[in-house]
From TrEMBL:
Keyword Transmembrane: yes
Acyltransferase recorded as keyword: no
Alphabetic keyword roster: Membrane, Signal, Transmembrane, Transmembrane helix
Composition-biased stretches (Polar residues): 700-722
Record SMART domains: TRP_N (SM01320)
Any Gene Ontology biological process: fungal-type cell wall biogenesis
Xref: InterPro entries: TRP_C (IPR010308), TRP_Flc/Pkd2-like (IPR040241), TRP_N (IPR032800)
Record-annotated ML-like domain positions: 27-167
UniProt membrane topology term: Multi-pass membrane protein
Pfam families attached to this UniProt entry: TRP, TRP_N
Signal peptide: 1-24
Protein name as annotated: ML-like domain-containing protein
GO cellular component: membrane
Length: 736
């Protein structure tokens, strides 16, 4: 059954992969979104699909439009921009195609499709890599110009894609499943306050969050890096529901509480990206800049309200350099790409936080019910139940602190950003409540830990059971003398939130400040070496260096520097590879600390012990065979296949009360007398040698009588000779 399901899944995955890669394998580029690059005057576009096939060097288009002016003859200019390069820039006479059906433009809804073969000189301008790389940055622009007057009647832009992207659902599910697996194992290991896996869980989530937060700056990111960072949007509690029920509820709430910003839509957000940013890269060439400037002047013309109403019905937006619906770099582009409006970002995080709190309360309540059932029905040992009941509140406090640490970055970042929008008053109120709550949940344990150390000493963090079990997740990974080095992590996270939200006007300042903070964290590890093991210091330094390198490479994304699109795209791929390597390193570290190595060691120990036991039994059997002795147990209490059991005494003789007494200092005379009587009594009752009194049991090399004399013989030799003589004498006269 399992093998058949595995085959079906493999087949389904294969067909889905083939469907995704079909366009890339065919060597084609197609439109992924459509917008007006100027308010239309003559032509209203309902559908605009263009696809280029590299195999036969042809362009196929399918246009559905409606003309509102009569007797208008236009020519079409086609411009294709890929990474700032214009491989196609041609003008088509519409009267020469479709048997003249478009000359003049008909005053009704019409649909036309055709395929045009391009000259060979144009196909040579298309880079072959454009068909195989993910997240292609390019667009096609169609401009309709009236024949004779040269007036622009319509302008349409459509982004291009080859069907490949670094944003994959499989990556989201894989990273989420890895986090859940680590969470379950960490829940089990957290019964021990000094376990390392709960700390590695926080390192994993912090790594995912650092990748996501790095895409929130005011930089001209390549599309491939934004798509890659969207794989970790869930770590910031940014979940986009398929039916948009959550986003619709947030839209209604904002509309009722004074929200005036744009709502979330299910359409592609790439069409609303600022034309100076990727994937449009309009400032790359002078021709495209001139075209944009001319279209901007055209956008200032008045448009009839009926036309605007028709445009809204067809869901084709007008996006120009002067439009107010343009998405800026940073949070707007990042959240809008997953169909979350900019004004809905915080409320999405807030609602997801409430869901997480509900899940945590359910788990904690289930634990209390389990303890109650154990007490009610007497499940388990009583001492074990008492131990669990006493430790459970501290366990809840510890995991509340860990969950607060996970939610600290998303709540603070988007709460600060919500304050800059001046939108819904209810959203602002919720952001204030969430900010105060998360700051209290994180800062109060820090204050308790620092105050306890100031009143006593760092060792109290490990000797005080309450502090260790409740707030040990802050400092148990560090040396006792370096307990305070958890504070820089919180300060850096808080500072990054301020940089993202309040310094969004300058991308260069954001990158430089991020770089300073990351370098400070690396020096924190290299200078103080705070962890308990060298491997932990190396691991923490590695993650810090990765963040420093990635932040330094992002300087190339600053718009004022003006790096060309292709180098920026290459740097984006490098960043994705570096972060992926860091995630793999963290994954292997999680495996090492998950307890799997204990199973390997246990198997090795079991196999080695069994092999040694078998070899010893084989050797003893060989010896007995050589001596012709049968292997029958001498004592019934012995076990030839395991550890010998303690023999049961044949008789239980009570000890003499005179002997079974604690040692008390006495005079030498009394000691000699007691020893003499004891020796006489023991000589009559046993033939196993003389019994030393308790006072002299720790110094067997000298007897009481002889130690008082001047005996110059070596202690061991004299004692051995005396003991042998006494044994021989008692053996020859047992009843003397």
């Amino acid at each position: 059954m399992f093998s058949s399901l595995a085959r079906l899944r493999a087949i389904a995955f294969t067909f889905s992969s083939l469907a995704i890669l079909s366009h890339a394998l065919e060597g084609s580029l197609f439109t992924s979104s459509v917008t007006y690059c100027a308010p239309p005057e003559t032509l209203l576009i309902q559908q605009f699909d263009v696809e280029y096939f590299a195999a036969n060097n042809s362009v196929s288009f399918n246009i559905s439009a409606e003309s509102v002016d009569s007797n208008v003859n236009v020519s079409a200019s086609m411009l294709v921009n890929v990474f700032g390069i214009q491989p196609v820039n041609i003008t088509i006479d519409l009267c020469g195609i479709l048997n003249g059906a478009l000359c003049p433009l008909p005053q009704y809804n019409f649909t036309g499709s055709d395929s045009i073969t391009l000259p060979g000189s144009i196909s040579s301008n298309f880079p072959s890599i454009a068909f195989i790389i993910p997240d292609l940055e390019g667009y096609a622009q169609l401009t309709l110009t009236e024949v004779g007057t040269g007036d622009v009647k319509a302008c349409v832009q459509a982004t291009l894609s080859n069907g490949l992207s670094t944003h994959q659902r499989a990556v989201e599910w894989t990273t989420g499943s890895l986090t859940l697996f680590t969470l379950f194992v960490a829940l089990w290991q957290s019964c021990f306050p000094t376990a390392i896996l709960p700390h590695r869980l926080l390192d994993l989530v912090n790594l995912f969050q650092s990748v996501a937060v790095s895409a929130l700056l005011n930089l001209n990111y390549p599309v491939t890096y934004i798509s890659y960072a969207l794989n970790f949007a869930w770590s910031l509690s940014l979940f986009s529901s398929g039916d948009d029920s959550m986003q619709g509820a947030i839209n209604n709430m904002r509309a009722l509480t004074g929200g005036g910003l744009a709502n979330s839509t299910s359409s592609s957000a790439v069409a609303f990206v600022n034309r100076k940013l990727s994937p449009f890269n309009s400032d790359s060439t002078s021709s495209s800049s001139a075209s944009i400037s001319s279209l901007s002047s055209l956008a200032k013309r008045t448009v009839e309200s009926s036309l605007l109403h028709n445009i809204q019905q067809r869901d084709v937006a007008v996006v120009t350099s002067e439009s107010d619906n343009v998405l800026s770099a940073g949070i707007p582009i990042y959240v809008s790409t997953i169909n979350i409006a900019t004004a809905n970002a915080f409320m999405t995080v807030f609602l997801c936080t409430l869901i997480l709190i509900a899940i945590a309360l359910f788990v904690f309540g289930f634990g209390w019910l389990s303890l109650f059932a154990m007490e009610r029905y007497g499940i388990g040992r009583e001492d074990r139940r008492i131990q669990i009941r006493r430790a459970y509140p501290s366990w809840i406090r510890a995991w509340t602190l860990r969950l607060s640490s996970v939610m600290f970055t998303p709540i603070v970042v988007f709460a600060f950003y919500q304050w800059t929008l001046n939108d819904s008053w209810l959203s602002i109120l919720f952001s204030v409540i969430a900010f105060l709550g998360i700051m209290s949940a994180v800062c109060y344990p820090c204050i308790v830990v620092i105050r306890s150390v100031r009143r006593s000493e760092p060792s109290v963090l490990y000797t005080d059971s309450f502090l260790l079990k409740s707030y040990g997740s802050l400092y148990t990974q560090y040396l006792p003398s370096r307990y305070y080095l958890f504070l820089p992590l919180i300060i850096v996270a808080f500072s990054k939130a301020i940089i993202v939200a309040f310094i969004s006007s300058s991308g260069m300042a954001q990158v430089i400040l991020f770089l300073i903070l990351e370098i400070a964290l690396v020096f924190r590890v290299l200078l103080f070496r705070p962890h308990k093991t060298r491997g932990a210091d190396i691991f923490s330094a590695f993650l810090g260096i990765v963040r420093v390198v990635c932040t330094g490479l992002m300087i190339a994304f600053v718009q004022s520097i003006g790096v060309k699109p292709i180098p920026r795209y290459a740097i984006g791929l490098v960043l994705a590879v570096i972060n992926s390597i860091a995630i793999l390193v963290v994954f292997f570290n999680l495996v090492l600390h998950s307890g799997i190595q204990r199973l390997w060691k246990r198997r090795e120990a079991t196999s080695s012990s069994s092999s040694s036991t078998s070899s010893s039994l084989q050797g003893s059997s060989n010896i007995m065979l050589e001596k012709n002795v049968t292997s029958s147990p001498k004592y019934p209490s012995s076990d030839p296949f395991g550890r010998p059991r303690n023999p049961t005494p044949e008789r239980n003789v009570p000890l003499d009360p005179e002997i079974n007494q604690p040692y008390s200092p006495s005079s030498p005379t009394a000691t000699t007398t007691d020893y003499a009587s004891t020796r006489q009594r023991d000589s009559e009752s046993t033939n196993f040698g003389s019994v030393l009194p308790r006072r002299w049991s720790f110094t067997p090399l000298h007897t009481p009588t002889e130690s008082s004399g001047l005996d110059h013989t070596p202690p061991f030799e004299s004692t051995l000779s005396r003991t042998s003589e006494e044994q021989i004498e008692q053996a020859s006269h047992p009843h003397a």
